[in-house]
Automatic annotation (TrEMBL):
Residue ranges constituting the RCK N-terminal domain according to the UniProt record: 5-123
Superkingdom of origin organism: Archaea
The DHHA1 domain, residue ranges: 370-447
Organism of provenance: Halomarina salina
The protein, known as: DHH family phosphoesterase
Domain DDH: 158-300
Pfam families tied to this protein: DHH, DHHA1, TrkA_N
């Protein structure tokens, strides 16, 4: 049986191992990356932790575990260490075929040395143009345009998420930043607002994302270009000036108006923007970093509700590509974070203040501490018996925020919120998950510090507009829609 020895497991190594596993023979890996060793062992690939360019380490493995080797693949990222690894392979396995990766930022001299020592040298400078030309026949022209835009920027690219970003927006921004930096353009994933949802905070903290939190009065002149991910218009669901010239837009939400940018990719037939960015990485042959891959996988899972909502074949394909690169152990920690007292109190107020009309539930929770608690409340209330649509809303910092959910109906809550509130604020989203926001100033002279009075005014405006819009929706059956009432909670539930 042939044994293939892999020395080093850098940006090329993991993808190469996946290919080698599909061919007959055994594989044995030596790498100094402890996380990669654990990942490979979890996939039943024999892997040893050690310096892959150290002759003593390689000889020890040869003696104990790999007595015969038919080929050696040197796949580290450091050109100098790769030279030493090739020399070691030649000494220990003189009859083996040696294939060497030149590594990152190698010099002409290092390439020449490797070419003299190895049977074959893998050089990205030769491979990347071939991959781009191959991709041109299947939509690669679009990716070449994207690469050209970021490559030509004379300064950093601001990759802007929507306000108070969710996992799909966060991961997409980090992925586009990696693509830009791979093309030689510095990039910053940026957002306005706050990240308060406990799972989103866990995602950012555990994966150590370097994000830039912009202020509304931030001086943006240091950026040479702007990209929008998971939304499509400056000044709408972000705090950029509305006349900001945009270079790149990547989104999976349907736009209500024409989008102006040098590069636009809008696909509402997929479940997540993370799916689009994964496709870019795959076709550009850019290996996602472990944090980026983990975030993209989580973004797809969240936006498709674990592949149960608005999912497409492309979403499955993207998840399959990401899985070998992702840190699934960290994902488990992200999915089970602690929940704040403020969030639990908001959910409690949503239950207590619920207004149920037929199968539709609305609830005003009053003053908010964290916007993300609205979405969690809307999700929780959707679990109540006989409720198919929820709208939970509250106010914070001069703005009314809303979150809506629906399931098992023909109602498009994204379109419903747009029809109800887009003329007096901002609204949008998907058929089963949407949001909206309205400036409090539109409600007149009610003082914001008078919470009870303000909640009453907000409740009248939001509820009236929402139900009036529902009544006008075609093919929507309302039972007792005009009657307000409070239904019984399921047995065992507690309002307090």
């Amino acid at each position: 049986m042939n044994t293939r020895l892999v020395l080093g497991c850098g940006s090329l190594g993991h993808a190469l191992i996946e290919r080698l596993r599909k061919t007959p023979g055994d594989i044995h890996v030596i790498t100094g990356d402890e996380g990669r060793v654990d990942s490979l062992r979890g996939e039943n690939v024999p892997a040893e932790l050690g310096a892959y360019d150290d002759p003593d380490v390689v000889e020890e493995v040869k003696t104990e575990d790999v007595p015969t080797v038919s080929s050696v693949v040197v796949a580290g990222d450091d050109p100098q260490r790769n030279e030493q690894a090739v020399e070691t392979a030649r000494d220990l396995y003189p009859r083996a075929t040696v294939v060497a990766y030149v590594g990152r930022d190698s010099t002409d001299e290092q390439r020449a040395t490797l070419a003299a020592l190895a049977d074959r040298v893998v050089d990205p400078a030769d491979i990347v143009p071939q991959r781009i030309l191959q991709a041109a026949g299947r939509g690669g022209l679009r990716l070449r345009q994207l690469h050209r835009i970021v490559r030509d920027l004379d300064g950093p690219l601001a990759v802007v998420m929507h306000d108070n970003p969710d996992p799909d927006a966060i991961a997409s921004a980090c992925a586009l930043a990696q693509i830009a930096e791979n093309a030689g353009c510095p990039a910053e994933p940026c957002y306005y607002g706050e990240i308060s949802h406990q799972e989103n905070l866990a995602l950012v903290n555990l994966l150590e994302y370097d994000l830039t939190n912009l202020d509304s009065d931030e001086d943006l002149s240091r950026f040479a270009g702007f990209a929008l991910v998971d939304h499509s218009r400056p000044g709408v669901n972000d705090q950029l000036p509305s006349d900001t010239p945009v270079d790149i837009v990547v989104d999976h939400h349907p736009p209500r108006e024409p989008i102006e940018a040098r590069f636009v990719n809008l696909r509402s037939d997929i479940g997540a923007t993370s799916t689009l960015l994964t496709d870019y990485l795959r076709r550009l042959d850019v290996e996602p970093s472990r944090p980026v891959a983990t975030g993209l996988l989580y973004g797809i899972r969240i936006d498709t509700k674990d592949f149960r909502r608005e999912v497409s074949v492309d979403d499955y394909t993207a998840a399959s590509f990401l899985l070998p690169y992702a840190d699934t152990a960290t994902l488990e920690r992200v999915e089970s974070p602690s929940i704040s007292v403020d969030t639990l109190e908001t959910v409690g107020r949503a239950i207590k203040n619920r207004d149920v009309r037929g199968e539709v539930l609305t609830s005003c929770v009053g003053r908010l501490h964290a916007r993300d608690a609205l979405a969690q409340s809307a999700d929780r209330l959707l679990d109540l018996r006989d409720v198919t649509t929820t709208l939970v809303y509250g106010f914070k910092d001069g703005t009314i925020y809303m979150s809506a959910r629906t399931r098992g109906t023909d109602l498009d809550v994204g379109e419903t919120l747009r029809e109800a509130f887009s003329q007096i604020g901002e609204a949008g989203g998907h058929a089963d998950m949407a949001g909206a926001q309205i400036p409090l100033g539109l409600l007149g002279t009610v003082e914001e510090d008078a919470d009870a009075d303000l909640s009453s005014v907000i409740q009248d405006v939001v509820t009236d507009r929402f139900f009036e819009t529902l009544r006008s929706r075609p093919n929507w059956d309302f039972v007792d829609l005009y009657d307000s009432g409070v239904e019984e909670l399921p047995v065992g539930a507690d309002e307090e």
